[in-house]
Design brief:
Blueprint: E1 2-5, E2 13-16, H1 19-47, H2 51-56, H3 61-89, H4 91-110, H5 115-143, H6 149-158, H7 160-174, H8 181-189, H9 192-200, H10 208-213, H11 217-228, H12 236-254, H13 268-278, H14 280-285, H15 290-294, H16 296-303, H17 308-335, H18 338-365, H19 372-404, H20 410-439, H21 442-461, H22 470-478, H23 488-493, H24 500-515
Antiparallel strand pairs: 1-2
Length: 516
């Protein structure tokens, strides 16, 4: 059964009564968003291998980089407005409009007649995907119950590889075509995921934390009940979560905090949260995966795999492998924790990059006499690298930042993190083909050195957020929890009990205090 649910926005909602069904829909929404980005990276990987695409645009290393990196130009502009849009319009409407913008970019990219048109389409596409990346991440992190948050939000990036796998299969299938549809059809199919997201949005509720901030208290409580207790407003877990949200908002109101972008640097605590939360974006960007994500063909060529069909097949296998590793990594993040998983992953990346660099040098020194064991050994380590990257950075990229940011800076903080990611990506995606062409194996050695620094910074500065609600994470930075309610996980497992009647009276008093 579907229940008409007020959302505080123009976008209506008919929400299923079952929390399980609703969680499934939220996961589908997450999957649709992540698949768009994954499809793009894998599609360009495949297109850059296809002669019909490179010949049509008469590409050289510089224009190849421009065609590929232009999506990050749009992403950069998108992140500048994504935080404000998400806070002003609401989490769901911002995601809706972002998906619509993405569709416009897909149409222009598909119809491109020259490099300029292709680049403009990809800039618009990047604009939409950047906004949806921030809005959907904030929406899902604020809506999913804490015990499911690692999986619910982790999948927001895990299914990057589902989109990538679809694109790899599509480009492999069209790779033998001699018409421009060999690259136009893969481009057109990219829009399916945005359509899917638009269809799902009317069947999920608005973020309860955004609703409370906007003064829609009863709507927020309904949203909490729908996502935690099959709509039971008096369920102890629902009451505990709702009370924590109200107490956190009351504290922020007393402190004079707003959702202004300036709030992210206003206080020492906010600045600390910004630096830790935003680090996931730049760290994931410079970890080394950009080479394989967008220039797999060049990377495989340095290892000795030069046939375009073999490279396309490797692209398919790589995405299956990365998806499996990302799902395994999400399990580790949920069970083991965010920080330990990131440290193990980063250490393995350093080892792989130095091995890849060494093996690539051996091939470059004497490519004519290179043995098959050297070639395939190098490819195997490249695949291991991508798997180890997916183990941590794929689920953590959109999971960790919104956990670290408080309610007043969550959207703008994540936007800033994504901005840093896209600025770096815009540079790295452009210079990688030039760097691989000019210095070859040394690029891997440079990347390995960066990753050592990243591992040290994670070990020293990151905090663990596993098993806590967003309001409980505040205590890690503020020094104290802003609510007298026991931790939600204790209530859920029966370690703590609530006097629901007494808390009901407190809730009414809290709402009056917030409104005054």
């Amino acid at each position: 059964m579907l229940e008409r649910t007020p959302t505080g926005t123009w976008l209506p909602a008919w929400v299923p009564e079952s929390t399980f069904t609703l969680s499934f829909l939220l996961i589908l929404c997450s999957i649709a968003q992540s698949a768009t980005g994954g499809y793009d990276g894998s599609m360009l990987n495949g297109l850059n291998i296809l002669p019909v695409y490179t010949d049509y645009f008469q590409l050289n290393p510089a224009t190849t980089g421009l065609n590929t990196a232009s999506v990050f130009i749009g992403c950069t502009f998108g992140t500048l407005v994504s935080g404000v849009m998400t806070d002003k319009l609401g989490r769901r409407p911002a995601t809706f409009w972002a998906s619509a913008i993405t569709l416009i970019g897909v149409v222009i990219q598909t119809a491109a007649q020259n490099i300029a048109m292709f680049v403009i389409g990809r800039i618009i596409l990047g604009l939409g995907t950047a906004i949806s990346g921030v809005s959907s991440s904030v929406f899902l992190s604020e809506t999913f119950p804490s015990r499911y948050r690692a999986w619910g939000v982790g999948l927001l990036n895990d299914f990057y590889y589902v989109g990538a796998l679809v694109a790899a299969g599509v480009t492999l299938g069209t790779g033998q075509w001699q018409s421009t549809w060999a690259w136009r059809l893969p481009s057109l199919i990219q829009g399916i995921f945005s359509v899917f997201c638009i269809i799902i949005l009317p069947f999920v509720p608005e973020s309860p934390r955004w609703l409370v901030h906007e003064g829609y208290f009863e709507y927020a409580r309904t949203s909490v009940a729908q996502t935690n207790s099959n709509g039971d407003l008096l369920d102890p877990v629902t009451v505990a979560v709702y009370k924590e949200i109200l107490d956190a908002l009351e504290f922020e109101k007393k402190e004079g905090r707003t959702m202004s972008p300036a709030e992210i640097v206003k206080t020492p605590t906010a600045r600390k949260r910004l630096l830790i939360g935003m680090s996931a974006g730049p760290f994931s960007c410079i970890a080394g995966n950009i080479i394989a994500s967008y220039y797999l063909g060049t990377e495989l060529s340095t290892a000795g795999i030069t046939d375009s069909t073999d490279q396309l097949k490797a692209n398919v296998v790589l995405n299956v492998w990365c998806l499996a590793c990302a799902l395994a990594g999400t399990h580790l993040v949920a069970q083991w924790g965010r920080k330990p998983t990131a440290l193990v992953s980063e250490t393995l990346l350093v080892i792989c990059l130095f091995i890849i660099g060494g093996l690539s040098k051996m091939y470059a020194d004497d490519p004519m006499n290179a043995s098959n064991s050297l070639v395939y050994g190098n490819v195997a380590v490249m695949f291991m690298f991508q798997g180890f990257y997916s183990l941590a950075w794929t689920p953590l990229l959109y999971l960790y930042p919104p956990e670290v940011f408080s309610g007043s800076i969550r959207a703008n903080g994540l936007a800033f993190s994504t901005l840093a990611l896209n600025l770096l990506a815009c540079i790295f995606v452009f210079i990688m083909p030039i760097g691989l062409n000019n210095i070859g194996w040394r690029m891997y050695m440079i990347n390995g050195s960066w990753d050592i620094v990243i591992a040290v910074l994670i070990a020293v500065y990151w905090v663990e957020t596993k098993g806590k609600t967003l309001e409980e994470i505040d205590a890690l930075f503020e020094g104290t929890k802003h609510s007298s309610i026991p931790d939600v996980e204790q209530v859920r497992t029966g370690q703590a009990t609530l006097d629901v009647g007494a808390i009901e009276q407190q809730l009414q008093a809290d709402i009056k205090a917030i409104k005054s």
